[in-house]
Amino acid sequence: MSEETLFTKIINGDIPADIVYEDEHCFAIKDIAPKAPTHLLVIPKKPIPKLVDASAEDKVLLGHMMLMVGEIAKKAGVDEAFRVIINNGEGVGQTVFHLHLHILGNKKFSEDSLGF
Ligand code: AMP
User: How far is CA 78 from the centre of its chain?
Assistant: First the structure.
């Protein structure tokens, strides 16, 4: 059996984390090393390693997560302005190989580029 990911251990209660949202398909936690005053991670319970590893059978799950990003941002009070980031691969800094969407809010980002 393959090793459980960090995020699977968190949702199983084996590693503590600040869980701000949970449903049948996904959950959200506060990032342990926040890069913005509001920094949340939205994570599928299914341990898909990277976005490119998702397949057609994950279509509904991925759509659900995008909808939940909006709900979670509203709940966190950042829905007026926030950024969503997915790191896919070590080359862009992915460190946890269990798909997750970063929600970054309450931070001034450049308005005309993706650089920050
Ligand atoms: P990425 O670099 O896109 O793979 O993002 C992984 C994120 O997980 C980083 O922003 C880390 O700060 C965060 N992280 C790592 N360990 C934990 C943890 N135990 N609880 C919450 N967030 C974590």
Answer: 15
